[in-house]
Amino acid sequence: MQEKNTEMNRIKVLMLVIFAALFVGCENNPENEDELFSIKHAKTLEGHTEWVYSVSWSPDGKKLASGSWDNTVIIWDANTGAKLKTLEGHRWYVISVCWSPDGKYVASCSEDKTVIIWDANTGEQVRTLERGDNRVLSVSWSPDGNYLAGGSVENDIVIWDANNGQEIKTLEGHSDRVITVSWSPDGRYLASGSKDKNVIIWDVNAGTELLTLEGHTNTVNSVCWSPDGKHLASGAYDANVIIWDAKTGAKTQILDGHYYSVNSVSWNADGKHLAVATTDTEVILRDVNNRESIQKAKGHFGTLRTVSWSPDGKKLASGACDNTVIIWTVK
Asked: Do 115 and 226 belong together in one domain?
């Protein structure tokens, strides 16, 4: 009887292995009819010595900036994967990076309580922005390049004049730290996500709160506008992505099915698909109009922190706790 039970257990294990292999093969097979894209691992960029927390494409899609817990920002050639510049100046973790619309500058914020604007070509520091003991957790450049927004631990959003570093406006409305900020494509509005579980859409010129979007049950980690500015995507610790109507504030879709916290969301140039980074090792692609549609890509050996589509929507960059950036080709 014991031998029979042992043999049955072996059969069960074998069946599980076969099932897992079939599942993985189906999940990554680009010819599967249910897949949204053919996504391939193009390059792994190695150079950071700690977690990669943020990635940002240059406007022309030729370069990539990455910010890491090793206190540095690296500028990469997105085509060859070569390291072009290592930007050193922060004294602690770099948690957010953002490219200027003209491609000349990169902004980064750090746990050292500074925001640095860098010359992307020379790697030199152009300007350092500080708010005393107020840490800035995310940065976003306005589409016209004149302003820089930062979400802070003091529950507010600061707007700087990017040309001279002057603080010109503060947006107050959240009841806890602001984790993420993003400008609308036309530059009129700003979206912010907070530990208070809410997303707020602001009229930047007036400095007023237009809509408070309630629906997440935990910290909002990432917000991103659709290319046409009509919708907003938000990802949170509750493992959900919510798609909002940016004009009315109505929920148009809830993309669930993630097993872990959603750390980053990025909208494809086609306006129909999202890339999602969760506290897992796989990049996730979602159809914003079909909550049942989900595709995953394996490549990282550490949990993901950030994901970003290239401007033309043909490539994807992801950064993770394995200290690497992966560039994916997407068709």
From this structure: yes
